[in-house]
Design brief:
161 residues, alpha+beta, Alpha-Beta Plaits, four-stranded antiparallel beta sheet, 33% helix, flat
């Protein structure tokens, strides 16, 4: 991977001046490279990684991994079905994978019922969807390469008799 991309993938807030200092390359060269990466779609988005356990109120959202088995469409394969699935606002990410199922879809909803409704009403009823298996995420320890710190838990006092 290009060293500029590697630096930005670890911390998108690093300035071109700081990248220049780290790489020994000219600042204008860095700026031009970043613009080129953005224009060519290599850099798609700058993102902040959140610890949702700390950022959101408890039980304010549910995230699920859904294994989806599909029948590929003639002449377009899996792509057209995947595009229809990832177009739903509930879908956070969608991956074509090897193994016993075809797509791994990450879905987020306000609660368990919202995710279940999405699966039953929108996803499972789609043409070419043969079956789904849902796994609800209970806790996230690491996201986008970043270890998430736990919320400080109140310690119980020892009781002695």
């Amino acid at each position: 991977m290009d060293e500029i991309l590697e630096i930005l993938s670890n911390d998108a807030r690093v300035s071109p001046e700081e990248i220049s200092r780290l790489t020994g390359k000219d600042v204008n060269t860095i700026k031009k490279a970043i613009k080129k990466f953005e224009k060519n779609g290599v850099i798609v988005k700058y993102k902040t990684v959140l610890n949702n356990d700390l950022a959101r109120e408890a039980n304010s959202f549910v995230r699920a991994l859904i294994e989806v088995s599909i029948s590929p469409e003639k002449d377009v394969g899996f792509d057209h079905v995947a595009e229809r699935i990832y177009s739903f606002p509930e879908v956070i990410s969608c991956h074509l994978v090897s193994g016993p199922y075809d797509l791994l879809v990450v879905v987020e909803g306000e609660n368990l019922q919202a995710v279940a409704h999405f699966i039953a009403a929108k996803l499972s009823s789609m043409a070419h969807v043969r079956g789904t298996a849902t796994h609800f995420l209970l806790k996230t320890y690491k996201e986008d390469g970043q270890v998430l710190k736990k919320a400080q838990q109140k310690k119980r006092l020892n009781i002695s008799y």
